[in-house]
Amino acid sequence: MGAAVSARADEVPGQQEKLAALYESLGVASLSEERRVEFEGQLRELYERHGGDQLFLEEDARKRSALFKLFEKEARELFAEPSLAGASEFRQKRLSYSAAPQRGKSDASLGDARASGERNRRPSLEFRSPEYDPANPAASPSPETRPLGAKARNAVTVKPGYEATTAPFDGSILGTYSYHGIEPKHYGAGVVSKINQDRGCVVAPYNDSDACSLYCIFDGHGEHGDGVSEFVLATIVQDLEAHPDLHAAPDVALKATFLATDMELARSNVESYYSGTTAVVCYRVDDTIFTANAGDSRAIVAVKDGAGRTCVPLSIDHNPNAPGERERIVKAGGFVSDPPEEGLSARVWLDRKCTQVGLAMGRSIGDNAVKRIGVIAEPEVRTHEVSDRDDFLVMATDGVWEFIPNEEAIELVGQFFDSGAENAAKDACKSLIDLAVKRWRDIEGDYRDDITAIVMKLATQDPDAAL
Questions:
Q1: Is 130 within 8 Å of 141 (Cβ atoms)?
Q2: Using CA atoms in the order 288, 383, 209, 252, what is the torsion angle rounded to 10 degrees?
Q3: Boundaries of each PPM-type phosphatase domain copy (predicted)?
Q4: pTM here?
Q5: Measured between alpha carbons, how far is 155 from 35 in angstroms, rounded to an integer?
Q6: Which residues contact 203 (CB under 8 A, 6 or more apart)?
Q7: pLDDT (tens digit per residue) in 351-363
Q8: For residue range 371-393, what is the model confidence (pLDDT) as tens digits?
């Protein structure tokens, strides 16, 4: 710890111990790596202003103690600035990981990769999303659309912070949007944009058939969640199509692909020990939708019911305290804490004192630190037969569902389809994102999760349609 402040840490008696105790009492480990590095820079400047190593080399013990107490007091004031104090609070409340990764024995297998720079060569896209003001929408740059596989087909990746403009279907049928989150500035007032860890895609036709299409939403979390979700998106799209059981048994193929992707991720150079992603995947074949889900992203269908609509869930959230999830985790040796208040998450912990990890879901791809205590990548697969009463599909990360119930989302999206607007699905998806942004601003202020959604108009298949 002392080395972060002084390069002479090994030469100054007592420095390491005192600075380590100060770091621990401040809770520096609760900061993200980026925040921690910046705070250490500020602390180093403060250390030098207070005399640097002279704090520990002063011969008079009482003077030495007084000097360090003054330095400690100002360090605590620096750490207590709203933006830094808020970081720990937001992690405890909303982030998928409640506790910062503890680098130690459980992480030893990653040491060589870090030392050799492997973490910087992972196959991922890291960038900050362009600004989007829901109160004054501006045209976003068109994303560079890349095919998700060797075969030619219509494929659109929901790029973080961009509207998907090259899609398999027009705006009256399909709407997609992914919008980055924000967090308080590291120092001072204001907010900064987060790297968007959400990913999503729509691929049609799929599996060499105009009657097949694929819809995916991924919500990465942890320090390298963007790399994980990027890897998982590409792997699932390609490997599912190649699975030998996809034609005859799509449910079997989906489960196997999720599990195989989890293993591929663990063997890759994408760091996934303390990072992972949710995954909700809808595979449509003619009038059947197979939905595989692991985590707390969600898919629902709006069904016409008289003059209104009702909701049919295609997935359930895998909260750690949900029936079956808690029992499996506890049986495997893990610990589950209940939500501290309504609207917040239960958590999975490695230790009885609930200090290590604190993952906010019972299933995910990645998150290898908690695989041994019952957090699994196996998805639940549900089957839904599309009827004439089925109106549209909504898929989204928990950035939407955190403050928007299923029924409210259906009512909002339904208004656009009822209007007969030319780009009903596209406009409905944007409006859903706008509402989620407003809810986060009203309720959480300076913090907002990444938000990604897909809205798809449904219709029963016929020989001349590929919807």
A1: yes
A2: -150
A3: 179-458
A4: 0.72
A5: 36
A6: 148, 153, 154, 155, 168, 213, 214, 237
A7: 898 888 889 999 9
A8: 999 999 999 999 999 999 999 99
